[in-house]
Write a structure and sequence with these properties.
The chain is of the alpha/beta class. It has 19 helices and 12 strands. The chain has 2 domains: 324 residues, ABC transporter type 1, transmembrane domain (ABC transporter transmembrane region fold), CATH 1.20.1560.10; 159 residues, 3-Layer(aba) Sandwich (Rossmann fold). The two termini are 44 Å apart. It binds adenosine-5'-triphosphate (ATP) and magnesium ion.
């Protein structure tokens, strides 16, 4: 299946219907915390019991302690004090057990979501580039942050409240049954259509919430992209236009959100109100019917008051259950998205029993390689190449010819459609990814540095390297001097976009980072394009020393770099059109010759 290349203004398609399966899966996720969950449920039951008993005490007080027809019972004081103490103890007990329940469920909810977030992050690290090629980062971001937050709320609040209130519903019904079976029957009958109505509303709400999420995710994606491209936006005076796009996306979100709110804040409370009123009316009608028709045993005043209280608790519990069920429907929308990420197979992953590449010599072979990013649009076709260990290869060709693509295949950033890429005779698909990446040092066209000090950034490729080793690497690539000229030297903090450094300086820092890892195969994609020709001369030295005894691929435009190479590959028209050293290719008077003369 071809994934649509999702843009900020396109909703992500979801084929999932609201289903209990998602919830089941989420709950299964919490399997590890079964013990805590059982404790939470026990505590909930205790809390509900404690909070339900006082109404029965009320019945006892009304029927047995309060003066009946003006007659006061003998031990009224003792009985009142006992009831009061009982009443207060039960209420305090309920408060205390509620506190314990909340504490337990908060911890459990946070632990589960912490695990979920970790898995999600692991997955995002594992997924190959094609996943990211297909959707904006903003959309991925909301999944790791907002969506998971709501799931934690699900475990802490929704799920516990549903269990608690289902329990209250059962208990109150049984209580009412004991006190007045006829009223219990009425209560039960009333609750059936109420449930159906609430379920219908919850389902509708789910659709609205899904739309709401999509619009929110679109807006976030746009903001994330705008922040990344701020320089371009300013340079082209696009602020106004982008403001308008943002407003439009916000409006769409607000509209979707308003619809959700109407369901959540109007339909639900409205139906709750109607149901409560109906219940009370039906209850009193029943009471009236029983008393006026003198059916069976009469109704005591205490029983009527208590049944009314329990009826209120019952209807409240129905409402809370439905309200929480609709929150759960919100969560299922999020869960769908999160499991969708977790279920995405990483296209690039280790095969079973991968081969560890040890003591790599650096022989690279392409055997009839065909590759495409998008199905049926080949970028490379039938490429055959054999690169001997230690050779320095310059890759040249027009823009978009596939130079970056060819070198990406060696590190197995993407998988070939057909053919084979081999390192030391081992197909990269059969080698362990860790060992491939450990042996290949890559410096891509757009260097990326992380927020932190220059020292941290160099150490990135070898976390256990000492300061001296990092400085040694910086010296090798002639970055040491410019770093030392900074007030804070190696401790200079740079932002994630590295805006504090010039483009050339950034490249030197990344070059130092690469050299520190000491890889056997080196890939430099326009790595020195921004370095001035003075420094370039120095770097050229580095090439001669550092690249010695390593296989290297250098994509460059500078003739000085290219002509030094052992071999030059001229890439265009989906294949390698020319292959040879500078002199040979110039003599050939073909593509390369024309390029040089340009
Ligand atoms: N992630 C991607 N998804 C789809 N198409 C891509 C992707 N990356 C590159 N391409 C396409 O593949 C072709 C080769 O791209 P590549 O980046 O290899 O070119 P290049 O030779 O490195 O160009 P340049 O000199 O501009 O860096 C181009 O047509 C490009 O549009
Ligand atoms: Mg390129």
């Amino acid at each position: 299946m071809q994934v649509s290349r999702n843009l900020y203004f396109e909703d992500e398609v979801s084929e999932e219907k609201f289903n209990a399966f998602m919830l089941k899966r989420l709950i299964k996720y919490a399997g590890e915390y079964k013990g805590t969950y059982i404790k939470v449920i026990i505590m909930l039951i205790v809390t509900s019991f404690l909070s339900l008993i006082p109404a029965t005490i009320n019945m006892y007080i009304i029927n047995n302690i309060l003066p009946q027809n003006g007659k006061v019972i003998d031990d009224v004081l003792t009985q009142s004090v006992i009831m009061l103490i009982l009443w207060i103890s039960l209420s305090l007990g309920a408060v205390f057990s509620n506190f314990i329940t909340s504490k337990l469920s908060i911890k459990m909810g946070n632990d589960i979501v912490c695990n979920l977030r970790k898995d999600l992050f692991d997955k995002l690290m594992e997924l190959s580039f094609d996943y990211y090629d297909n959707r904006p980062t903003g959309k991925i971001l909301v999944r790791v942050t907002n969506y998971t937050d709501e799931i934690s709320n699900f475990f802490i609040n929704d799920m516990t409240r549903v269990v608690e209130n289902v329990f209250i519903m059962i208990v109150t019904l049984v209580y009412i049954m004991f006190i007045e079976i006829r009223m219990a029957l009425v209560t039960f009958l009333v609750s059936i259509p109420v449930f159906f109505l609430m379920w219908f509303l919850a389902k509708k709400l789910h659709e609205k919430v899904r739309n709401d999420r999509n619009k929110n995710s679109n807006r976030t994606a746009f903001v994330a992209e705008d922040i990344n491209g701020l320089e371009v936006i300013k340079a082209f005076n696009r602020e106004r236009l982008n403001d308008e796009i943002f407003e439009e996306l916000s409006e769409k979100f607000l509209k979707a959100h308003a619809q959700t709110t109407v369901y959540r804040e109007i339909f639900f409370p409205l139906s709750h109100g109607v149901i409560r009123t109906l219940c009370t009316v039906i209850l009193y009608m029943t009471a009236l019917f029983i008393t006026t028709h003198n059916i069976g045993a009469g109704l005591t005043l205490g029983a009527l008051v208590t049944v009314t209280t329990y009826m209120q608790r019952f209807s409240n519990a129905v409402f809370v259950v439905c309200q929480r069920l609709q929150s759960i429907t919100n969560v299922t929308s999020n869960v769908e998205r999160i499991f969708e990420v977790l279920d995405t197979p990483a296209k690039i992953k280790n095969c079973e029993n991968p081969i560890e590449l040890t003591d790599v010599k650096g022989k690279i072979e392409f055997e009839d390689v065909t590759f495409s990013y998008v199905p049926e649009v080949n970028v490379l076709e039938n490429i055959n190449l054999t690169i001997e260990p230690g050779q320095m290869i310059a890759v040249v060709g027009p823009t978009g010819a596939g130079k970056t693509t060819i070198v990406s295949l060696i590190s197995r950033f993407y998988d070939v459609q057909s053919g084979k890429v081999m390192i030391d005779g081992v197909d990269v698909k059969e080698a362990s990814l860790e060992s491939i990446r450990k042996n290949i040092g890559v410096m891509m066209q757009d260097t990326f540095l992380f927020r932190g000090t220059i020292m941290d950034n160099i150490r990135f490729s070898k976390p256990d390297a000492t300061d001296e080793e990092c400085m040694e690497a910086a010296k090798k690539v002639h970055a040491h001097d410019f770093i030392m000229n900074r007030k804070d030297g190696y401790q200079t903090v740079i932002s994630s976009q590295g805006t504090e450094l010039s483009a050339g300086e950034k490249q030197l820092v990344s070059f130092a980072r690469l050299i520190l890892a000491d890889p056997k195969i080196i890939i430099l994609d326009e790595a020195t394009s921004n370095i001035d020709s003075e420094t370039e001369k120095l770097v050229q030295d580095v090439f001669n020393t550092v690249l010695k005894n390593r296989t290297s691929f250098i994509i460059a435009h500078r003739l000085s770099t290219i002509r030094n190479a052992d071999r030059i590959l001229y890439v265009d028209k989906k294949s390698v059109l020319e292959d040879g050293n500078h002199e040979e290719l110039v003599a050939k008077k073909g593509y390369y010759y024309r390029l040089v003369n340009h």
